[in-house]
Specification:
Elements (H helix, E strand, L loop, with lengths): L2 E5 L8 H7 L3 E5 L3 H7 L5 E4 L10 H4 L3 E3 L8 H11 L4 E5 L7 H16 L4 E4 L4 E5 L2 E4 L7 E6 L3 E9 L3 E6 L9 E11 L4 E6 L7
Parallel strand pairs: 1-2, 1-5, 2-3, 3-4, 5-6
Antiparallel strand pairs: 6-7, 7-13, 8-12, 9-12, 9-13, 10-11, 10-12
Amino acid sequence: MSRFFILLGGELVRTPRLEAQLQGSRVIAADAGMAHAVMLGILPELWVGDFDSVPDDLPESHRGIEKQVFPAEKDKTDGELAIAAALERGATSLILAGAFGGTRTDHAFLHLSLALRLAEDGIPTLLTSGAQEGQPLLPGTTEFDYADGTLFSVLGLSELSGLTETGAKWPLDNVEVGFGSSLTLSNEVSGTLRIALKSGRAVLIAHPYPLPEH
């Protein structure tokens, strides 16, 4: 098994959960994601992108890392190119760190879609900001390790059939959820969270380290 940690350009905070996920992972940075490598005190094995977003204050130790350079006018994002590089190097699972937030909502949506596609192709994929996580939900039953009180939502990317949520403050039992419904937003973990789905496409969004409101 080979897990790759892909550093993307969105928001990322250092948490104990993030550090535990990083242990034993190989690391690839996508363009501006190299700033997260500095914050985490790690040296990726590869740096991928068109390098139009390189931090000005990047330490010299991080400038000599192996690079894959692409033109600015390309048909894939730096993140997708970094994921492709990880798969070429034998990745069997992925953590997309910095997949949320930032100034590009379109990139965040792409990362959710990519994670779902990768999971359907047999590559388990987690999205994280350190404080917030996203996990694709495939037909079948998935169990999660979140603590009691953790806020979570299920984002349906299609109509959902036979959705069951146990170990939740507001459980659901074999329900049909229309596309665009808010029924599955803002629940809380209560026990061991298990989510079963008969058909449809969805992503679990959880907040294991909620940040203080400003």
